[in-house]
Design brief:
Blueprint lengths: L7 H5 L19 H6 L5 E2 L5 E7 L3 H18 L4 E5 L2 E9 L2 E2 L2 H17 L6
Antiparallel strand pairs: 1-2, 2-4, 3-4, 4-5
Helix pairs in contact: 3-4
């Protein structure tokens, strides 16, 4: 049985059982799979057509700052997420609508989110 929101390395390198099929957008570059496997904090969505991650920041202000930086890049790249903010938490999902499925754009934006979150500063684990 496949659990929803399995982390990407679990899915891409599943040793036992059949790995879930991820729906990739058409005409993606060969490096997509390798770059996707490096997104260890991200999970595949239940639809298997996108990736998702929850970021937890020290404060609402830090979460908003993260969203503001990412929003600017979204405008530049013409690729926008589905996201939700609740106080210091930001949940973000990347998928491509045309062509439908997971694309290199989604991976690039997830990589950007990871870099921006590191810059802004995630909440320290206790």
């Amino acid at each position: 049985m496949i659990r929803p929101y399995m982390h990407l390395p679990e899915i891409l390198h599943s040793a036992g059982g059949e790995a879930p099929r991820i729906t990739f957008a058409a005409n993606q570059p060969p490096e997509l799979h390798d770059r996707l496997s490096r997104l260890s904090a991200w999970s595949i969505t239940p639809s298997k057509m996108g990736i998702t991650r929850e970021f937890i920041f020290p404060s609402f202000h830090a979460a908003w700052h993260f969203m503001d930086i990412v929003a600017g890049e979204c405008k530049t790249k013409q690729h926008h997420p589905s996201w939700h903010n609740l106080y210091n938490r930001v949940t973000i999902e990347w998928t491509t609508h045309k062509p439908l499925g997971l694309s290199i754009k989604d991976v690039e934006m997830a990589e950007l989110c990871d870099r921006v979150a590191d810059q802004v500063g995630l909440r320290k684990k206790t």
